[in-house]
Amino acid sequence: MTEKPPKFFVKAAAPYAMIGAFTLAALLAASYAWIARTPPEQPAGPPEPMIIAANTSYAGTGLVFVAQVKGYFANEGLNVTLQPYTTGKSALDAALAGRAALATVADIPIMFAVTKGQPVSIVATISTVERDPGIIGRKDKGVLTLASLNGKRIGVTLGTSGHFVLDAFLIRQKLSTDDVTLRDLQPEELGEALVKGDVDAVATWEPYLGSLRTQLGANGTIFYSEGIYELPFNIAGTRDYVVSHPETIKKLLRALVRAERFHKDEPDAARKIIAGAINVSLENLKEVWPTYRFNVTLDQSLLLTLEDETRWAIKNQLTARPDIPNYLNYLYLDGLEAVKPESVTVIH
Hints:
Distance between the termini: 41 Å
Strand order of the largest sheet: 2-1-3-10-4-11
Structural class: alpha/beta
Largest sheet: 6 strands, mixed
Order of helices and strands: HEHHEHEHEEEHEHEHEEHHHHEHH
Strand content: 15-25%
Shape: globular
Radius of gyration: 21 Å
């Protein structure tokens, strides 16, 4: 079947008791590989339209880009259009407002939405990364170590993973946000502010970190979040939409699982697709590529991370909610349990 050019953006067990454990594991692996590699028959009838609000500046959205370019969404009978945003927070806001069916988003915006009482439902985690976000500062402004952030002007997009990591860095230096001057800027504004000297450092993520590292050259000092925070990047929507479209969610997840397999089998081709989608060079993406893990999962660690982040928000008076929500109520397990059950490790 000839693939159509991608449309990216718009504006706006009992019988087998005698089988040994090893044989059964092999059968499961073979079944997963068959699902991921074998193109399904083209569904009858017109394709189902779906708008995904996506952070199109972030490599963590990668499986969505691959599924779009390779035609996996179309194979499942989905006519997906990607609505571009520069943060997961703004993408999630679009889904919550009904401008999109689903959104690609990190954990921090989900946590804030839940603490505000918004009906978020997480369908799956589609990537994790261990060196992102981070902080980059100017040596000529005295930013040489993390401790030297004391008294500095720092650009950050409040309510994002960059904000969370900045606080984590400060706490490790026995500092707080009272010891620095924060400037709330959009991600695309941070670079200009740092280069012009309007701020001394910024807390952000890739590809902005890499771009600023190149621009500042020897004048730049960069601190990665490795060992402090592992960012889970997810696909989520409103509870009403997700629960009322169970078959649609399964189609979406099957397409993403195929994209996951393609990434593992052909990483160079996947990297090329993702670099083109987020408009960065292959070389720049190749440098940070090993820090990304593209897997479709729902892991217990996501719940623990969301709880820790809620404690941080409460302690820093970033939310009016005094207690920690039961985040299990904000995970949609049925879809992934039907499509790739071995990847659901949430205790429930």
